[in-house]
Design brief:
The complex is a heterodimer of chains A (about 425) and B (about 250). By secondary structure, chain A is α/β, with parallel strands linked by helices. Chain A contains 10 helices and 21 strands. In chain A, a hairpin with a 2-residue loop joins strand 2 and strand 3. In chain B, helix 2 crosses helix 3 and helix 5 runs parallel beside helix 6. The chains are: A alpha/beta (about 425), B alpha/beta (about 250).
């Protein structure tokens, strides 16, 4: 397809310089992804899964793959820290690890935090079989593109039965190099049986330059592992973000994932959760605050592949100005997944006449003994609640803000880590106050 | 304090108040009684400034100001308070946050300094005792999951916090058992003073055993058709509203 031709050519030009070029398995993976990208191209609105999200501004921009070596001032990192979080931090500059900006001091020996580039060049055999396993067949051209260029990102390995006290923060700073670059980080999280951790994947921009962040995260949770995961997109309004979260859960594992989008010209998130082991549980939450002319699209897909699994999904959006959002939530209950317990809800608050939401909850059930509920709502601020507040003397703007925050709050209130929760709440507060 | 003259109000094109006049002096307690659909709640809501009520004519003066010209939050700052017939549940907004915003907005309006956290909490603890509410209710979402009685007590608690000069109680007695009714009445009575006025909108005389009014008015077909003292309420209790409606119909 024509819209990907330049990327295909760029990959072919640079493939020999990618880390791990000589590894047969990796070579085959990149080649297959490149073939898919070449054949399918980048998605367009003709694709059912992209019906409401135009990629024209991305394809027109003709982004060039970023290369390693761009810099980000350390001040920027210092100013961006989440107060009280005290994480092990890996910083990626336009998709490439900056060891100088990262802080892995006092990392316990049973936890490994390495860059993918490092892993591919020194110890690929342990990790390589996992790369692409949770992703499966790339669902669209962006994911194929990430796989074709796969070079750097984070590899997080937590050994069995290890409980990591401090959270891990993966900070992706885009807009560091020239105008018009695409970064393509790939992150792999491998958690052993019974391990526990908190991981924050945070995307922000250094400069207000046009940029594309095509990020992909794969998570493999071993038996009984528990992961608290948060993905936050707060990039500049000239940046585009296409993010993927692909997770597989073994027996009795628990994933609590929260996706928060507060800015960016276009944000598209694909979350695919496979409940592969009995008794596994996923809480998939999202909060999107869409103002100005931003566009946020969340496509989620939870697959109940085995019996006795639980999924709880809550996505909430607040849209103002000319903001547009899309929610497509698919829950698939396979034939073997008896006693599935699944709930999904998508709620939207529209603050302006010109804001628009397209929401599509979708249930596919092939088992007969299941409990599934889903629903979507779109509404405006409740006039009666507003009157109640102002009749107590609260100023109208304040009352509107209180109600708007209250609407979005419950998703953020559920975030386990207190410093992270407070950070997200204040971020949402600022976004809604300036709306 | 409040002077309503020839007020005519429509809701969805239907005239509900039809030439209502009422004067409430400073420090007075007035009860407005009347059959269902006579316009009692409309009167309370129009004075508080709720949307959806179309004023066709007449005036409402509050402390010499044209009340109808003021936004509802400004009416609150000026000292008008409405205890809702059906208090609204607001998930996610803490009771205490609402009170703090409302109270401090009124203080700013009056040019007074905002209460700091400690003084505010002190005031809250003092007032919440009046309505015998547990402190945990402060930190819960406004009215969410409250029982009917708890909601009404919360209204009176808010009133006690905001210390309005004119309180409108819209059927605050409805749905209350006798113990809750006594608590609510006690809260209202504790606020009675020479510079505060109260309008009790009620269908039943029962509340007036506990909050004894200075004046009782009967509202029928959008106008006040009878005024008297507390004995009028007793007569209504004994004889019902039939005779009022007949005489109102005859007059019209």
């Amino acid at each position: 397809m024509e819209n990907a031709a330049a990327y295909v050519a760029a990959q072919q030009d640079t493939a020999a310089q990618l880390p791990g070029y000589g590894l047969a398995e990796l070579y085959a993976g990149r080649a297959a992804a490149l073939e898919q990208l070449s054949r399918q191209g980048l998605p367009s609105q003709q694709d059912e899964d992209w019906k409401y999200t135009s990629t024209r501004s991305i394809t027109r921009a003709a982004f060039k793959p970023a290369s390693a070596g761009a810099t980000c001032p350390s001040d920027f990192i210092t100013q961006s820290v989440i107060e009280g979080l005290n994480p092990y931090r890996m910083v990626f500059v336009d998709g490439f690890l900056s060891a100088a900006l990262s802080d892995l001091e006092a990392l316990p020996t049973h936890v490994r935090l390495r860059s993918l580039a490092q892993v591919l060049s020194e110890d690929a055999t342990s990790v390589l079989p996992k790369l692409g396993q949770m992703l499966g067949d790339p669902p669209h051209g962006f994911a194929a593109m990430n796989s074709a260029f796969v070079a750097d990102g984070a590899v997080v390995e937590i050994e069995a039965h290890q409980h990591l006290e401090r959270p891990i923060e993966l900070l992706f700073v885009s807009g560091c190099g020239d105008e018009g670059l695409v970064s393509m980080p790939r992150t792999l999280v491998l958690m052993g049986e019974g391990s526990q951790a908190t991981i924050i994947e945070r995307h922000c921009s250094l400069k207000e330059v046009r940029s594309l962040n095509n990020s992909l995260v794969e998570i493999d949770l071993g038996k009984g592992a528990v992961l608290d995961y948060c993905s936050l997109q707060s990039q500049s309004d000239r940046s585009f973000h296409v993010g993927g979260l692909f997770a597989g859960l073994a027996e009795s594992a628990t994933l609590r994932a929260t996706t928060v989008s507060t800015s960016g010209a276009l944000v598209r998130n694909d979350a695919r959760i496979n409940l592969n082991g009995e008794n596994s549980t996923v809480y998939l939450d999202g909060c999107y605050l869409v103002f100005g002319r931003s566009h946020v699209d969340n496509h989620t897909h939870i697959s109940h592949n085995r019996a006795d699994c639980v999924s709880r999904e809550t996505y909430k959006g607040v849209l103002g100005d000319r903001g547009r959002a899309v929610f497509h939530g698919r829950i698939v209950v396979k034939q073997d997944a008896q006693k599935t317990d699944s709930e999904q809800s998508n709620q939207n608050l529209l603050l302006s006449e010109e804001a628009e939401i397209d929401t599509k909850p979708q249930l596919e059930i092939y088992a007969d003994d299941v409990k599934c509920a889903h629903g979507a709502t779109v509404g405006q601020l409740d006039d009666l609640a507003l009157f109640y507040l102002v009749s107590r003397g609260v100023k109208r703007e304040t009352a509107r803000r209180m109600l708007t925050q209250a609407f979005a709050a419950d998703v953020l209130d559920r975030v386990e880590s207190v410093p992270l929760r407070q950070y997200l709440q204040s971020l949402a507060f600022d976004r809604l106050s300036n709306a | 304090m409040l002077k309503i003259s020839d007020l005519r109000v429509a809701v969805d094109g239907k005239t509900i108040l039809n030439g209502l006049s009422l004067e409430v002096g400073t420090g007075e307690v007035h009860a407005i009684m009347g059959p269902n659909g006579s316009g009692k709640s409309t009167l309370a809501n129009v004075v508080a400034g709720r949307d959806g009520y179309e004023v066709l004519g007449g005036t409402v003066e509050f402390k010499g100001k044209d009340l109808l010209d003021l936004d509802p939050e400004v009416r609150a700052h000026e000292g008008v308070f409405l205890a809702f017939q059906y208090p609204v549940e607001i998930p996610g907004v803490a009771n205490i946050a609402l009170l703090k915003e409302g109270l401090n907005a009124a203080r700013r309006y009056r040019g007074e300094p905002e209460l700091d956290a400690l003084d505010f909490l002190k005031l809250v603890r003092e007032k919440i005792k009046l309505v015998e509410m547990k402190e945990e209710f402060l930190y819960r979402s406004v009215n969410e999951g409250f029982s009917g009685g708890e909601k009404k007590r919360n209204e009176i608690f808010q009133m006690a916090m905001l210390e309005p000069s004119l309180s409108l109680l819209d059927e605050t007695d409805s749905g209350l058992d006798i113990d809750a009714l006594k608590i609510v009445a006690g809260g209202v009575n504790s606020l009675r003073s020479q510079d505060r006025s109260v309008i009790l909108v009620t269908h039943y005389q029962r509340l007036l055993d506990y909050i004894v009014p200075d004046y009782v008015h009967v509202l029928a077909e959008g106008r006040i058709v009878q005024s008297g003292d507390k004995d009028l309420a007793l007569k209504l209790e004994a004889e019902g509203y039939g005779w009022i409606e007949e005489s109102a119909g005859a007059a019209a």
